Amino acid sequence: SNFSASASRHFKVEVMDEDGGVLKKRKFRSRAHANPLADPAFEYPVSPDTVDWSHVYEEYCKDGKMDRPINFADIGCGFGGLLMQLGKHFPEKVSIGIEIRDKVSSYVDQKIQALRAENEGQYRNIAVIRTNAMKCIVNYFARGSLDKIFFCFPDPHFKAKNHRRRIINRNSLSEFGFVLREGGLLYAITDVKDLHDWHVQHLDEHPLFEKVSDDELKEDVCYSLIQESSEEATKVSRNEGSKWSAVYRRLLVQKAIETFEAAR
């Protein structure tokens, strides 16, 4: 049987004030971080072929199957700032936000519904699902199906014993590389220098990825968007903090093999 993709499979928070006011983030107080290695009662699809996307992309589905690919994935999308900008700047592309925290994903889902209601014909190309990307990204997306993956201000998990919880690591990069198409891009940004160094080290060491040059990034709209679009990016700018970002390209398999062999 098919698995219905959803923003919140276990609960939903109502967000409208009595006077019909706008969404209030304060009503969605949630833990700042979540342990991706814990095992809450998540339900996972058996494979990408079994995912019914009609609940979140109703206009793009027929019998639960998408009539177009999902292009961009914002992993750990938070309150959806980047996701909504992707929907606005790339109306011809389909973007998905993935968030592990239930209250936060519920907020983003209802925000998207509000934007759709207020802007006829717009924001149909974005949606959010609540799941654990660190454990089941390949259950949702087929091999080489995504054009871009974003990691904006992920949890740094400062303690050394918790570094294995960091979303970008040797094992997870293999899975993210699996769902990215050859030539696809992975974006990572953080305000923690140690975490940036960790990202660069693990991406440099992984044979499926190569760093994108600064010259290429000057013309990259998405690179500009990750600097300011998310709520966390806005907060860092407001506090005059530093941001460190890196973009890596998914290599052709043959080139990855050659790179790996050359490094042995």
Q: Keywords, please?
A:
seven-stranded mixed sheet; two-stranded parallel sheet; alpha/beta; about 260 residues; single chain
Tell me what the structure shows.
By secondary structure, this protein is of the alpha/beta class. The protein contains nine helices and eleven strands. The protein has helices at residues 81-89, 102-118, 133-140, 170-179, 193-205, 214-217, 221-228, 231-238, 253-263; strands at 3-4, 51-52, 61-62, 65-66, 72-75, 95-99, 126-130, 146-152, 180-190, 209-211, 244-250. The strands form three sheets. The chain has a seven-stranded mixed beta sheet, with helices on both faces. Strands 1-2 form a two-stranded parallel ribbon. It has a two-stranded antiparallel sheet with strand order 3-4. Helix 4 links the parallel strand 8 (146-152) and strand 9. Helix 3 (133-140) runs parallel beside helix 4 (170-179). The longest helix is centred in the middle third of the chain and has 17 residues, at 102-118. The chain is globular and about 50 Å long. Mean pLDDT is 87; it is low at 9-22.
